[in-house]
Amino acid sequence: MNRIAGIINLDHEQDVLSELTYFRCGAAVPFGGRYRMIDFTVSNMVNSRIESIAVFARSKYRSLMDHLEQGKAWDLDRKRGGLFILPPDWNDPSDISRGDLQHFHNNIDFLNRTAANYILVSGSQHICNINYQDVLKEHQQNDADVTVIYKRVDELTSEHQLAQKLDIDEFGRVETIHNEHFNPHVYMDMYLIRKDVLKELVQNSIAHGHTNFFNEAIKGKLHMLHVHAYEYEGPHALVNSVESYFRNNTNLLNAEEHAQLFKDDAPILTKVKNEAPSKYLQGSNVKNTLVANGCVVKGHVEDSILFRGVKVGKGAVIKNSVIMQRCEIAENAVLENVIIDKDCNISEGKTLIGAPEKPFVVAKRQSM
């Protein structure tokens, strides 16, 4: 039996996107015109024939629950398996677990009930399009206890400084995991592990008072476990700062990069919302821009991303910006290098200008 179950572990993902994570966790942040960050993780799992997925969420998960619902958009609203959003619920008085081990301990029924004998654990900050069946095949060929997934990044940028890196021997075995900045082997916060090994390591880690399963039970035991490294060679973006969020969104304006990430045979799925087609009124001018459904454009928009339902007034100018759902940009406003969160109103004649390396950010539901 070669079934895989999925765990999306958000416990150690900090709210690093400033105003964008005031009211939501990072996994729920909108991305790419019509998606959320977590859509890529869930879609990758579903496209890899993973039918049972648990989400470990600790805080600010209301928006996440509203978006995922019962998993219908990913065909996960099913009688067997499906999508399980598992917020913290520590009711066991004998529970001594801490950190993300609390999730594994208190949701052990998810592991016990799934028919899968492999578990794929992933975060949400690495945007990619990956087939985990390929990872499973290499995992079995190497008879590994754990297979960690990495991306070779030859041009490291600021977001890679805090990412963990791998030292790998000639046989693909992981020797060390560290934070050395100049190492190109960027660990993607994804690993495949046999279910029996996972359960054993969880019990051992709790008994020893550990708080971070990967760092202490896997990274800390490389000398005891056979940890294999799988190289992912497809499109990849790491979003762990406002700057990396802005840059990786606007990178999608490159047609080649967009096509590599959004594949016809491995689609990125999201919650469906019924919107009318976008309207471009007389006098509007739109260049090199991703425009989602339901937008009404009367002004000038260039090198930008407009999410669903954005309204751009006559004479308004938007350049190199990300404008999220249902924002209204009044007449003659000027926006350049900005990120506007959902449901914001920018008043007539208002000018907001940031820098490409440090965009100006407006939090959700603000009027300016």
From TrEMBL:
What stretch or stretches form a coiled coil here?
none
Q: Which SUPFAM superfamilies match?
A: Nucleotide-diphospho-sugar transferases, Trimeric LpxA-like enzymes
Task: Give residue ranges for domain Nucleotidyl transferase.
Answer: 18-154
Superkingdom of origin: Bacteria
Q: Keywords of this protein's UniProt record, alphabetized?
A: Glycogen biosynthesis
An example Gene Ontology molecular-function term:
glucose-1-phosphate adenylyltransferase activity
Q: Does this entry carry the keyword Disulfide bond?
A: no
A GO BP term here is:
glycogen biosynthetic process
Where does the Glucose-1-phosphate adenylyltransferase/Bifunctional protein GlmU-like C-terminal hexapeptide domain lie? Answer: 284-354
Q: Does the keyword Secreted apply?
A: no
Instruction: Note the Pfam families from the entry.
Output: Hexapep_GlmU, NTP_transferase
Q: Which family would the database say this protein is a member of?
A: Belongs to the bacterial/plant glucose-1-phosphate adenylyltransferase family.
- The identity of this protein, by name, is Glycogen biosynthesis protein GlgD
